[in-house]
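Two folds, back to back.
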Amino acid sequence: MAAIRTEYGPEGEILYLVPYPPENLPAVTRRDLEQAFEAARDDSLRPGRRATDARTRLIRFSAPEQPPLDLTLTDRDAASWAGAIDDVADLSTPHGISTCLRLLALVEVMGSAGWARDWFTLNRAGLDFHPALLQAAALTPLTATGGFAETALRALLPGSGGQQE
C-alpha cells in the first residue's frame, strides 16, 4: 500500500493524507481493536491528559477519478481516542488508520443499532465487548465512507448465518 503522509495545520490540527479510498484499508486483528480501545479508555481516565489529545484530526482519502473524502474528527472524545490510538497503532500507517476507523465505526454502530446491544455490556467498570463483536469489526470491510455496512458486520457474528468464532 502507498504511504500515508501526515501534515500539521496552523492550529495544531493533524491531517492524514491517504492516497486510496477507505474500503482499501486492511483488516486488522481483534487484539488490535482491544489494544486501541484499552489505550483510548486509559487515556480518557488519566488525570492531566495532554493538551494535544483532542486536536482536530482530518483523514483525507483520495483516489484517482474519485472526489476526495474528508473525515474530520472534531468531537473532543473522538479526537482524543484517535490520539491514544495513534500511540499504539501509528495513524501514519494503513494499519493504524484502519484500526482507528474500525473502533470509531464500532462505537457508532453500538450507539445506533439495537441489535448490537447483545454484543457488549456497559457496567460500572466500563465497557466489555463480546470477543465475536471485536473479531467481526476487525474483519468487516470498511465502506466508501469509512464506516461499516451493518449487514456485513452482522454477517460475521455467530448465529447470523456468517462465520463462527
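---
second:
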Amino acid sequence: MCKLIDLEECISKGLVKKTVPSMEQAIVSISKSKALLVEAKGDLEDERYNSATVVAYLVLLNCSRALLFKDGYRERSHACVARYLEVKYKNKIPQDFIMLLDHYRETRHDVQYEPDFSAEADGARQIVEFSDKFLKLVENLMK
C-alpha cells in the first residue's frame, strides 16, 4: 500500500470539501453500515466471498463518511477518506485501523475491477470481522 495523496492535496483538489455538519446524515450512515454488516455476514455464511468483501468495505466507507458528515465534510475519493481520518482522528483511531481501511479499499477495488481476482474465504472473513470492529469504534466516536 502506498499513500499517493495527503489530506491537504485532497482538499486542494476538491476531493474533500467543507460543508455544513450534519449529525442526521452521520446517523443515517451508521444505520446503513449496520444493515450492510448484516448483509456481509450473510454473504460470508453463504460462501459468497466477493460479495462479502465488497459489502464489508461499504460498511467501512459508510462508517468513515459518518465521521466526515458529523464534522462537516464530504468526500469525492475513497482514498481521501482514509487521509481525513488519519489526520483528523489521529489520536482516536489506531493507525493500524487506517492502514487496514486502505488495504481493504484496495482489496475491494481488486474484487470489483480485476477480472482475475477473487476474494478467498479467509480474506473475506477478516474484512467482515474488521468491519464489525470499525463500526463499534465509530459508534463510540459519535457519542
